[in-house]
Amino acid sequence: MPPTPHQGHVVVAPDKFKGSLEGAEAAARIAAGIRRAAPGTEVRELPVADGGEGTLAAALAAGFSRVPAKVAGPTGLPVDAALAVRDDTAVVELAQASGLARLPGGRTAPLAAGSYGVGQLIAKAVSLGAKRIVLGLGGSACTDGGAGMVQALGARLRDAGGAELPPGGAALRRLAEIDPGPLAEVLGGVEVVVACDVDNPLLGPRGAAAVYGPQKGADGGDLVVLEAGLTRFADLVAEATGRDVREAPGAGAAGGVGFAALALLGATMRPGIELLLDLLGFDGAVRGACLVVTGEGCLDAQTLHGKAPAGVAAAAARAGVRVAAVAGRLELSEPEWRAAGFTAVIALTDLAERPGESMTRAAELAELAGERLAEELLSH
């Protein structure tokens, strides 16, 4: 016999299950399972993100309007991207313009990939009247320190002969002059907030090139070139602005786009999931709830360091609401996930009948996971 409707509603707030389910679909499937097992229970779907890929989709699911924009992809070829707008706030997701998924044919271009399209999305947001721009970093294909982004907003980066630098981190080695141009005017009165879940500096062994360059196709020789370019860029930015933020936590995010945002756009940084939960109205959604269900593709040690499910669990705990999770795979021990605040965790791999089905049947299994959680946690 199904449980009777529980006092209070349920909030379903998962991140994407990378490679199998977008956040909105994961939320819809988990919610469907809960509704089936606990008919009459109010279930609210609020997919979340931590500032990386999926940030735009989460904003759209929360009621932001989609604004299409054709911009330069990481190699300069045009791509169809979008941003999200509500009132005077715009959400710009770097991966829409300069993400690995935007590389033509999936071929990496570690030395030449740039962030120009991100700047074009920011310019579009400003033209629409945005006074607050939330910039989600993550999944970038470039290691250009954000040089392309500021060029798209009017800054001039020139070599010793006075020629404008071409895209990519390698070209930064030839940088001789930075002219911020109309940057301050373009962004006058606009607050830029970066959603970021890494604390890497721009340079060094924990920097943008060393840590993230290999994910973008850079080998040993490429990494030396990129580090030299980023160092040259940081030196001249400090000279031009009188501020040196190369060591700032998050400066190394998205191939150094975090650095340019801090140094040249006057941005502030906030942990991605915290910022997104505020933006999506999580506190309001969870008020009066009896349960929050979050999730992602893999619940592991990384989850505990600022990933979306941990952020949701912390926010739910502050509201005094139990939180459970659905994961594609579970790599935490029960003591670990309980210490992180989860009442229950269900992994799709445990529901699958055969290996690989947690990916190929993810939607169906997520629904089953929702059903199981409702049976376990919502029965009287």
Topology:
Layout: E1 9-12, H1 23-37, E2 43-45, H2 55-61, E3 65-72, E4 78-86, E5 89-93, H3 94-98, H4 116-127, E6 132-136, H5 147-152, E7 156-158, E8 177-179, H6 183-186, E9 191-196, H7 208-212, H8 220-241, H9 253-264, E10 268-271, H10 272-280, H11 282-286, E11 289-299, H12 308-318, E12 322-330, H13 334-339, E13 344-347, H14 348-351, H15 357-360, H16 362-377
Parallel strand pairs: 1-2, 1-11, 5-6, 6-9, 9-10, 11-12, 12-13
Antiparallel strand pairs: 3-4, 4-5, 7-8
Task: Write structural notes for this entry.
With 380 residues, the chain is α/β, with parallel strands linked by helices. The protein folds into 2 domains: 135 residues, Rossmann fold (3-Layer(aba) Sandwich), CATH 3.40.50.10350; 219 residues, Glycerate kinase, domain 2. 38% of the residues lie in helices and 19% in strands. Strands 3-4-5-6-9-10 form a 6-stranded mixed sheet, sandwiched between helices. Strands 2-1-11-12-13 form a 5-stranded parallel sheet. The chain has a two-stranded antiparallel ribbon with strand order 7-8. Helix 1 packs across helix 16 and helix 10 packs across helix 12.
